[in-house]
Amino acid sequence: MARTGVIICHCGSNIASVVDVERVALAAGQMPGVTYAATNKYTCSISGQDMIKQAIAEHELDRLVIASCTPRMHETTFRKMLTKTSINPYMLEIANIREQCSWVHTDKEKATEKAIDLVHMAVAKVLKDQPLFTSSIPVHKKCLVVGGGIAGIQAALDVAEAGYEVTLVEREPSIGGKMVMLDKTFPTLDCSACISTPKMAEAGAHPNIRLMTSCEISAVTGYIGNFQVTIRQKPRYVNHDTCTGCGLCEEKCPTKVTNLFDQSLSKRKAIYKLFPQAVPAKPVIDSEHCTMLKSGKCGLCSKLCPLGCINFEDQEDFITETFGAIVLATGYDLIDWAKAYPEYGGGKYANVISGLQFERLVNASGPTEGHIQRPGDGAEPKTVVIVKCVGSRDPAKAKAYCSRACCMYAAKHAHQILEKIEGSKVYVFYIDVRTPGKGYEEFYDKTRADGAVYIRGRVSKIYEEGGKLICKGEDTLIGKQVAVEADMVVLETAMEPAHGSTETAATAGVSADKDGWLTEAHPKLRPVETQTAGVYLCGTAQGPKDIPDTVAQASAAAAKVLGLLAKDELETSPMISVVDAPKCSGCGFCEQVCPVKAISMVDVPSMYNGKRVTRTVAQVNSGLCSGCGACSAACRTGCIDLLGFTNKQILEEVDALWQE
Amino acid sequence: MKYSYFPGCGMEATGIEYAKSLAFVNRAIGVEFIEIDDWNCCGATAGHSTSHELGMALPARNLALSEQQRPGMPIVVPCASCYSRMKYALQAAQGSENEKLSRLIGMPVSGAAEIVSIMEAYSDPVAAEAIKAAIKKPLDGLKVACYYGCLYTRPPKVTGMENCEDPQAMDELVRLTGAACVDWAFKTECCGAGHHVDLPAESKPLLYKIYKNARANGAQAIITACPMCMMNLDMRQGAVNMAYGEDFDLPVYFLTELLAVAMGAGFGECGVATHFHPAKKLLQNLINNKEVV
Fold first, then answer.
1. Non-local CB neighbours of B108 within 8 Å, separated by 6+ positions
2. Which of the four CATH numbers 1.20.1250.20, 1.20.1050.140, 3.40.50.300, 3.30.10.20 does domain B2-118 have?
3. DSSP 3-state assignment of A184?
4. Chain A residues with CB inside 8 Å of B184's CB?
5. First to last CA, chain B
6. What is the pLDDT of residues A322-342, one digit of tens each?
7. Where are the domains of chain A?
8. Where do the structural domains in chain B lie, given as residue ranges?
C-alpha cells in the first residue's frame, strides 16, 4: 500500500492569500493513498525541507506530492532534497497551485476548489510513479566558440586560461569583430583598438586556443558533453602555414575593391588582410574580385610571393571535431537604413553617414587617418547633425526595440566632433537619452557642457539644398518645427542580429526571438544558457548591448562552460522515451517528429507464426533524447512511453479530475 | 482599356484643365473612362473630419455604385484627395467594417474593385506603349519636378505604395514625353492646399519650400496630378513671391496637360492657356525653337 505525503505550500502570501491552503490539506488527507498531509509557509526553504525530511522518516512515506509553484522553479530543489531521504527523487509530483491557480484567480472559493483538483490529480499520478535512476555520460573537455568578436575572444580566453582547449571559429579572415572598427570607447574614451588588439593577439598566440578564421560551422550533432561539429573552412588561396605575412602580394595586387571594413569609405586589394592588426596577420584572396580566379588572368601575387604560398586551386574543406560545450557569440550588424529611410535620402547623399562610418572617419587607422572629412568632398564639416534611434524604437519603419548603445556613442561622436573641429556645432536629435551605466550620465552631461545641442524630436526628412543638408524635425519640447542646415549627418542606426546568425544558431539547436536575437534559457536567471544543454551564448548575439556588458556576459558564459568541462561525467535525466518494441509497428512517425533526432529505425529479429522474420522498430538514443514527449504523443500504437509521464500516469490524472 | 470613372468635384471646377487634357490623352491612346452614374462627393476633409462614419460612407457609396454598374471594373480616380478617401473606404469595405458600411449606404459593397490613380492607369504597359507611340512633339530639353503631393502615396498601409517617400510612376510617364525629371526632395511634401483659406500663415511656407527646392534642383516647371495641388501651386505662386520677395517662375502643369501637349494638343484645347501662372510660353518656346531648328 502506497504511503503518500502531501505538502501544501503557502508561498508566503503568494498562494495562501487566494487559496485556503488548510482546506486543501484537509481534502488531501482524505485522498486515496495519502498518509500525511500538511501545509508549510515556505516549503523550498531549509526549514521547509527539513520538515519534509522529518515527515518522511516519521510517517514512512514512500512518495511525495508538493503543491507549490511551477515545477520549473523548484522541482530540481526538491529532487535534490529527496536524494538525502529514503524516497527515490522521481517519486515526486508537483501540483502547480501558484502560476496556474493563485496568481491568475481572484475568487478564493473557486481557486481553493481548483487547487484541490490539482492536488487530486498529482496524488493520482504519484501512485503510478516508478523509481527512476540517472545514468552518466562522459564530457569531452573541449570548447567551441562561434564568432571572433570581443565576446568570442573574451569567452575563448577565459576558458583557455583555465586550462581547457578552445577552438575559436570566425567567418571573416581575422578575429576582432566590430570592436576593432571603433575609434574610442565611451565613457572613458580609451582607444578601442588599443584595448582589443592585445586581446586578439593573446587569443592568436594562446597555446590552448586554435583559431579557425574564414570558417563557419555547417553541422552540429550529438549532445551536451559530446557535440560533433562540422566546420567549413572556406578557401583562402594562401597557405597560412608557410605565409609570413610580408605583405608584398597585397602591395602589388592591381585589383581595387570596396573596403567593407572601412564601411565602404576606402578601397582595398583583392588579396588582403582585413585590417593592419589582423589576427592571423596573413592575407586571403577575395575570390569574388580576384581577376585570376574570375578570368584566369593576372596571378601577379603568385609570381611575386617569395615562399610560393599562393594556391589558386584551394578548395573548401570540412573538419569534424568533438566538443563538450559550444558558445555562440555571433554578434550584430547594423540595419540597412537606406532601405528603411528613403526620407533621409535613402543613401543618395554622400554626407549622410552611419555611426560606424563615422567611427572609421574619426579613427587614426581609418581612411582619413582620423581627420573628420565629409565623404562627399573631403571638406571638414562645421555643422553636424546626429540623429539617434534610426531604426530603433520605430516599429513602423524597422525595429521596435532600443539598441542600447546608441545614446552613449552618439554623445561620444558629438564630443569627438566638438573636440576635433574648432568652432564646430553639433545638434543631436533624440527621443530620450538613456544612460544607465557607470559614468554614462556624467559623460552625457559633459558632452552637453561641451556645447552639443540636444533637440528632443525625430528628424522627419533630410534633403540637400544649396550645398547643405537640411534636417527637418520637430522640437517637441517647444512644440515647433525646426530645420538645421548641416554639412554632415551621422545616423546612429539600429543593431540587428548578424546576417546568418539565426541559421548558425539553429544548426546548434538554439532558437531566436521575433527579431532574430538568440533566446536565452531564462531572461533573468539563466541569461547565458540556452534551451539546448551545453550550448551557451554571449554578447550581441543575444540582444543589443555595449562593450562592458558584452565582455561581462562573455566571461559569464565562460564560467558556465568551465562548470561543465570541470566534470568528468554528466548525470543524464532518466525521464526519456522508451519503446515497447513488440508493440511497435515500425511506422517511423516518431522518427519524423523527434526534434533532436534521437529516434532511429532498426531491424530486429523476431518470430511470426513460428517463422524467423526481421521487424523494423523504433529505437531511442538515451544520450540524445531530451524527454520532450513528442514521440509518445505521436505514436499511433501507444508503444512509446515517456518515463515520468507515461500514458498511464496521465490518464490517472485525467480520471482523478472527474472523480468526486 | 476601360475604367469606371470617379471624376470628383474638382474636375468640373478648378480642375477643368485636368478634365480637358485627360479627355484628349484618353482619345489619343484609346483608353476609356466611363463615369459612375449618380456619384457623390468623396467626403474629403470636411466629411472625414466631421465623423468617421460619414467619411467612410460617402466614398463607399461610390464604390458600391461602380460595383453595381460595372462589376469588377477598376475605378480610376484622378484627384489625390478622392483617391485617398476611396482607398480608405475600399480597405474598410474589405475588412471588418463591411457590414456597417453596407447598412449606412443602404446597398451592398464588396470592395472587390481596384482603385487606381491616373499614374497607375497610364503606367499599365499597354497604355504606356500607346502614350509613347502618340508623342508627336517631344519635350526634350524641358526639366521638370514631379510633385506627387502628400495623399497619393501615403499612408502606405492604405495606398499600398512601396516607395512612398520617393515614388517614380509620374517621373516615368513624364520621361515618355522626352522631358527630364529632376531629382528633388519635395515630391511628397504637403502643399497646404486644405488649409490655405483658414491658415494662410501656416500654408505659405509650405508652398515656398516646394518652389525653392524645385528651383534649386534645376526644375523649370512643376508637374502634378492633383487638382487641389494644382490650384494651390498655380494660383498662389504670385502671393508667395510677394510675401517672400521672390521671383519664382515655375509654371505648373497637370501630368495630362504635359502629355497632351506632347501629343500635339493645342494649348487652349488641353487647358494650358487658362492657368493663373502663365504656362503657355515655356512650352511654346520649347516647341517653336525646335521647329526653327
1. B64, B67, B102
2. 1.20.1050.140
3. strand
4. 463
5. 38
6. 999 999 999 999 999 999 999
7. 4-126, 136-234+316-331+513-568, 237-314, 334-496, 577-642
8. 2-118, 136-292
* Average of per-residue pLDDT across B65-94: 95
Whole-Å CA distances, A451 to A5, A176, A425, A434, A476:
71, 34, 7, 19, 20
Q: Would the CB atoms of B166 and A464 count as touching at under 8 Å? A: no
A660 has pLDDT over 70: no
Amino acid identity of residue A657, one-letter, is L
Are A136-234+316-331+513-568 and A334-496 equal in CATH topology?
yes
Q: Rounded mean pLDDT of A389-402?
A: 96
Predicted complex ipTM exceeds 0.85 = no
Question: Which residue does chain A place closest to B217, by CA atoms?
Answer: A465
Mark yes or no for CB contact B186/A466 under 8 Å: no
Query: Across residues B235-242, what is the average pLDDT?
Result: 95
B163, B166, B216 member nearest A465 (Cβ) = B216
Please state the φ and ψ torsions of residue B205, each to the nearest 5 degrees: -60, -30
Q: Supply the pLDDT for residue B292.
A: 62
Q: How many residues does chain B have?
A: 293
Contacts 24+ apart (CB under 8 A), A239-242: A239/A309, A239/A310, A239/A311, A240/A280, A240/A282, A240/A309, A242/A307, A242/A308, A242/A309
Q: What is the pLDDT of residue A482?
A: 96
Please state, in angstroms and as integers, the Cα–Cα distance from residue A105 to each residue in A21, A69, A110, A119, A273, following that order.
15, 15, 8, 17, 63
Return the sign of the alpha-carbon dihedral for residues A373, A376, A382, A386.
Answer: negative
CB within 8 Å: A463 and B185: yes
Q: Output the CA angle A129-A131-A134, nearest 5 degrees.
A: 130
| Architecture of the domain whose range is A577-642 | 2-Layer Sandwich (3.30)
Query: B54 in contact with A at a CB cutoff of 8 Å?
Result: no
Note the CATH number of domain A334-496: 3.50.50.60
Q: Tell me the C-alpha distance between A324 and A141, whole Å.
A: 6
DSSP string, A74-86: HHHHHHHHHTTSS
Confidence of residue B47 (pLDDT cuts 50, 70, 90): confident
**Distance of CA A271 to CAs A178, A235, A245, A378, Å?**
21, 13, 12, 27
What architecture (CATH level 2) is domain B136-292? Answer: 3-Layer(aba) Sandwich (3.40)
Residue B293: is its pLDDT beyond 60? Answer: no
Residue B185 near chain A (CB below 8 Å): yes
Question: What are the beta bridge partners of residue A185?
Answer: A190
Cross-chain residue pair B213–A463, CB shorter than 8 Å: yes
Q: Could you tell me the pTM of the whole model?
A: 0.81
Q: How far is B209 from chain A (nearest CA, A)?
A: 11
pLDDT in tens, A578-622: 999 999 999 999 999 988 788 999 999 988 888 898 999 999 988
Mean pLDDT of all residues belonging to chain B: 94
The H or E element that residue B118 is part of is helix B118-123
Q: For chain A, which residues lie within 8 Å of any Cβ of chain B, measuring from their own Cβ?
A: 342-343, 346, 348, 461, 463-466, 470
> Percentage of chain B with pLDDT > 90?
84
Listed residue (A260, A253, A266) closest to A292, CA to CA = A253
Of A342, A343, A465, nearest to B213 by CB-CB distance is: A465
Phi, psi dihedral angles at B125 (to 5 degrees): -50, -40
Residues of B in contact with A466 (CB under 8 A): 216
CA distance A347 to chain B (A): 12
Paired sense of beta strands A4-9 and A63-68, if any: parallel
Cα of B188 to nearest chain A Cα, Å: 10
Question: How far is it, in rounded angstroms, from Cα A312 to Cα A296?
Answer: 10
- DSSP assignments along A75-124, one per residue: HHHHHHHHTTSSS-TTSEEEEE-IIIIITT---HHHHHHHHHHHHHHHHH
